[in-house]
Amino acid sequence: MGTTRSRNVVVIRFDDSDRTYRALSQLKKADADGLIDVHAAVIVERKADGSLDVADGTDHQIGEGITKGSLIGLLVGILGGPFGLLLGWGAGALIGGVIDADKASETDAVIGAFTKTVPPGRNALITDVTETRESVIDTDAAADGGTVTRRPAHEVLDEIEAAAAAAEAARDAASAKLRAEKRAERREEFHERWGRIRHGVHL
């Protein structure tokens, strides 16, 4: 029988922010040693307004990191980071109501789990990784008192697609409402102008 390999999105959080950077170094070493295959990884910190700050510099990310089209980049956007622009959203779209954080926590298994994993004022390491043994990451994280949240990558992708569809539907609904309001304004303006002309010219 062959070795089972699974691709997962893993979020690792520590009470001490410095340990998150150490976990990234350990992740890089495990990847270099061939124990895991890291597709992308990045350190993020949630601000008080719900948005995510992404650590600057290539030393704080691996592989694609948060580049356009990467699974991690899209997930960061959904979780409230500035890279929501990749999906056509503005910063803080999650908090702004396109996807409400509380509702996500209650109804969406993946997004809700990750939302609660990175509370305001804390940082976390988010990685897209293929694993043969989950213990490689779990053991290192546990040794430093870390909390690990893991979901299959295909489930994360499913929710990203659903979130993108919901955002598109919300944008379409907002555009339709705006067009209807503009039409109503134009009709009102027409009647006002026509009334002034009729009274002025005495038709």
Write up this protein:
With 203 residues, the protein is α+β, with helices and mostly antiparallel strands. The chain has 7 helices and 6 strands, in the order βαβββααααβαβα. The protein has helices at 17-32, 71-78, 93-96, 101-107, 109-117, 135-143, 153-201; strands spanning 6-13, 36-46, 52-54, 61-63, 123-131, 147-152. Strands 1, 2, 3, 4, 5 and 6 form a 6-stranded antiparallel β-sheet that branches. Helix 1 (17-32) runs antiparallel to helix 6, helix 2 crosses helix 7 and helix 4 (101-107) packs across helix 5 (109-117). Residues 81-107 have low confidence and may be disordered.
Based on CA atoms alone, the radius of gyration comes out at 23 Å
Number of strands: 6
Overall pLDDT score: 75
* Strand content bin: 15-25%
Ranges where pLDDT stays below 50 over 5 or more residues in a row are 81-107
Dominant shape = elongated
Number of helices: 7
Overall structural class, as computed from helix and strand content, comes to alpha+beta
Q: What sequence of helices (H) and strands (E) makes up the elements?
A: EHEEEHHHHEHEH
For the largest beta-sheet, the strand count, sense and barrel status come to:
6 strands, antiparallel
Helix content: 40-55%
